[in-house]
Amino acid sequence: MAIELEPSWLKVLGDEFDKDYMVKLKQFLKDEKETGQKIYPKGTDIFNAFNKTPFDEVKVVILGQDPYHGPNQAHGLSFSVQNGVATPPSLQNIYKELATDIPGFKIPNTGNLTHWAEQGVLLLNATLTVRAGMAGSHQKKGWEKFTDTVIKTISDKKTGVVFILWGNYAQSKSELIDGSKHLIIKSTHPSPLAVGRGGFFGSKPFSKTNAYLIKHGEKPIDWQI
């Protein structure tokens, strides 16, 4: 697995790639490919979140868990799918919340969230790869250690970042974040299984994010896709 990472991320994370857990993770991915397993996303998209959102430009972090495991969906951005692919149910619910939270927001016909990433929204999954058709298949192989380091590095080295944590898994990462110098927004996960329990719809994470960014002298996010 060749590491092609945006320079500002390489500067703060470069040492991670030589650590034992990452060497083992690279070997695991190599073994998967050599035994004919199809991996999502494609190799050049694994670090897409970092390459679309340089470390120096991170203003918001939206944490997901796993890449989508269906064909042509995952492209390295949490909750996002490639153009021409049906909008997944969780993202449909995110759009519904946006439509009530952000005045004038129109639900788009694409699930590609690159526009957010290019404005400083780090769309980070805790696990960056998955075996085709097998949800969670690359969990506990080392990715979580890497992405925990990413979250803690952002918390330690930056100030005024908004962390949006949906669901229990994402919220467990709040212990890595210094809440005294960042904003942590928590609610139920937008997945159809979770939204029925209440707490996601009406939580207004997007307007809260923009209000915080403006208060701290940052340009708000244009959430319209």
User: Fraction of residues in helices?
Assistant: 25-40%
Assembly type: single chain
Order of helices and strands: HHEHEHHEEHEHEHH
Beta fraction: 5-15%
Strand order of the largest sheet: 3-2-5-6
What is the distance, rounded to the nearest whole angstrom, between the alpha carbons of the first and last residues?
Answer: 32 Å
Overall geometry comes to globular
Q: What Rg is obtained from the alpha carbons, in whole angstroms? A: 17 Å
Stretches where pLDDT is under 50 for at least 5 consecutive residues are none
- SS-based structural class? alpha/beta
Number of strand elements: 6
For the largest beta-sheet, the strand count, sense and barrel status come to:
4 strands, parallel
Count the DSSP helices: 9
Arithmetic mean pLDDT:
95
Descriptive keywords:
alpha/beta, four-stranded parallel beta sheet, globular, 6 strands, 225 residues
Strand and helix map with partners:
Blueprint (H helix, E strand, L loop, with lengths): L6 H7 L6 H15 L4 E2 L7 H5 L7 E5 L24 H13 L12 H4 L3 E5 L4 E2 L11 H15 L4 E5 H5 L11 E5 L4 H4 L9 H11 L10
Parallel strand pairs: 2-3, 2-5, 5-6
Antiparallel strand pairs: 1-4
Q: What's the gist of this structure?
A:
The chain has helices at 7-13, 20-34, 48-52, 89-101, 114-117, 143-157, 167-171, 192-195, 205-215; strands at 39-40, 60-64, 121-125, 130-131, 162-166, 183-187. By secondary structure, the protein is α/β, with parallel strands linked by helices. Strand 5, helix 7 and strand 6 form a beta-alpha-beta unit.
